[in-house]
User: Fold these one by one.
Assistant:
Number 1:
Amino acid sequence: MVTSGPRVAPVDLRSDTVTKPSPGMREAMARAEVGDDVYGEDPTVNRLQERVADLLGQEAALFVASGTMANQIALGVLTRPGDEVICDEGAHPVHFEGGAMSALWGIQPRTLRGERGLLDPAQVEAAVRPPSEHFPRSRVLEIENTHNRGGGTVYPVDRVRALADVARRLGLDLYLDGARLLNACVAAGVPARAYAEGATLASLCLSKGLGAPAGSLLAGPRDLVREARRLRKRLGGAMRQAGVLAAAGLWALDRNVERLAEDHENARALAGALGALPGCLVPHPVETNIVFAAFPGRSAVDLASRFREAGVLCNPEGSRPDVVRFVTHLDVSRADVLEAAGRVARALGA
Ligand SMILES: Cc1ncc(COP(=O)(O)O)c(C=O)c1O
């Protein structure tokens, strides 16, 4: 059977990963000075690494292929087989990294139920296991800022500091998955280094709200970044003239950070329009660029396909059967998100 696609140009709100490099970014990529990064000779990669290390207040940083690779290298560097990683139950490595934590490093997650993904220091303290040959060794506390499955939630910086204190006191390393860290910074008015200061390792992704085609950075002390380099090689992630990609990252860091506020405003506008529809509920205030819309009694999977037919691409949220997720980004305007809300309304017969 031939199925017909949407009749109108779709508004793509599946993720902030769908952005395409702009003409200016492509030009910067084409002009990039490059070298063999496995020899440490790519000047553009080196510049990006220094820039992000400085941004995160860390000694060094390593350019890696993806947010998943940054997460897995961080966990690999900080653990030994049999160790346990304390994290929220919705953490990215728990759900969306193909079981890499156990497959690659022989470690296990100890999942806690955070408040929309955000952990509380007392809750973490209670979960750290006492030393005993019976128990796995609690080794790493992993937090995500913003929290994807929490709905783009932002950690208050004091909470991150308190979590870092608990981790340090109990002998754990803190790993900050900062795939959308700059969204948190722009929303909270907090510099990235303030969020990263208590973390042993922290990451930042270039291919989400920043709009680059690929790449993440993992930052931390020089000796751990050296070890991260070894694991990157082991995973087959050591690229050669990667400056072509790094140039896109530098271009994005120069131009696409402050504008994340527009994505957040567009997300709030979308949430306002959706929340006004009969049968739709936006259960939480929108903090950044992710909107969860609940349709009580209806199937998110069915709705997402109905919305697709109407010209709005979005995804079922995944942890609740009636929640659809919409994500704003660089390639959608205020007019686009309002158009999307209108299409959703028509698809619902509202
Ligand atoms: C919080 C978080 N961490 C890590 C990742 C992984 O990034 P990538 O898709 O580049 O592997 C994502 C992807 O959406 C994410 O949301």
Number 2:
Amino acid sequence: MLTKKTKNNTKSYFFVLNHAINLINSKRFSKLYSVIKLVELTFYGGIEEIGGNKILLKDNDTKIFLDFGMSFGRRGNYFEEFLNPRAANGIGDFLELNLIPDVAGIYREDLLIHQGKKPELPDVQGVLLSHAHADHANYISFLHEKIPIYCGKTCKYILDAVKEQSRREIENEVIDFKKRPAYKKNYRDLPIARTFNTFRTGDKIKIDDLEIEPVHVDHSVPGAYGFIIHTSEGKIVYTGDLRLHGRHSHLTEDFVNKAKEERPIAMITEGTRIDTGKTNESEQRVYNKSKKNLEHNKDLSVVDFNFKDVDRFTTFYNIAKDLDRKLVISFKHACYLERYHKDKKLKSPDSRDENILILKPKRMTGTYIDEDYYDYYIKKRLNYPNVKTAEEIRKKPQDYVVVLNFWYLNQLIDLKPKGGMYIHSLSEPFNEEMEISYDRMINWIMHFNMNFVQSHCSGHINGYDLKSIIKEINPKSLYPIHTEKPESFKDIKVSTIIVKEGKKYKI
Ligand SMILES: [Zn+2]
Ligand SMILES: [Zn+2]
């Protein structure tokens, strides 16, 4: 039986409950609630540096990362070719030197346990990966496998190509990873795969309450995207890396037009070349200059460019074809080209195309016998009909344009050019380490009496074009990253925030 006291208590309990329900339904409360609503950005990389973007976007309970890349600059402060972070210490070396942020709920269980920490359930619902460059993608390697990766279809093809022709290292386990520490008994364990959700422009991504629209942009790698993110406070746009002077500038224009329509409250922009003015660079100019130099060359032609750059490949493929020469690529390049060929939009030839040859490198015995090749990506392509040795090429060097990256310059000893032309179709050195490598490259070229030509156009938008697209998009606030000169954005008439690492910015 209820006593008078308990009856009164029950009454007052229901009164409070009722009042609470009314309050929740009231306008006043929803106003109050909207004040508590929180959209927040935290930057863990790309701050006063080019690349290494790791941006945490929090919208109430939803958290996503915009890219999770490797910072070459920070890594280079401590490491070089033979001084590397120790995989034997898991993420310990990376955390100690602030190459990755000390954030809970994002890292792989095996790596946390290795650090003597308790495993954590993932507290981030996804990573939006803008493109396949290492400074945006590579440190996904450390993330929990239950955090899905959202990227363009072509971006995934490129990540697959990278994986196919590289040895497994702790810093390149983007597609999948093997548990660490690496005990001998676990050597044959199957790798743990991450989830990739791929998209194309026009698709809409839903991550919890967030809706995201990826829009293609032009950059020096295909499958690059900018994002329009619909948060509870308004739209945030993220440029990724982009440019307006490339072969597909209309892609960037599409992104700018879409971003402009959305009247964004915030824009996170790359600013690699904010300090440059108008430039007259273009892929067509690279074609013209390179072709002009190569057409009178009566000896071997050698070129170095980044094979992730499909536009540059097309430029040299067309030059070789127009000059009635064969383009000679490596087995590593074949891994990329076969993926590009799969993507019908890119209109790239297959690695067995009639205008392409694949250079067989010397391995083990140096006699080109089959058992010399243990790397699977070479082994499975050894019987292609267009595989040639350096000895075969040097019989008629004027018939070929050989793509030779810096690390393979020693193959010049087999190719034996007597003069000829070397085209450096990459950016010029911009730090001390690159200068040293550059000097070595020049030594090789001089040793073989080759002529040197620089012929390149940048993957990044120039300062003039960037300022003009910011004005056009006209965001309420601007967050420049991926730049060494964020203060150079201050003269644009948009409220600009010079971001500090790890600081939370309410939007
Ligand atoms: Zn970048
Ligand atoms: Zn990039």
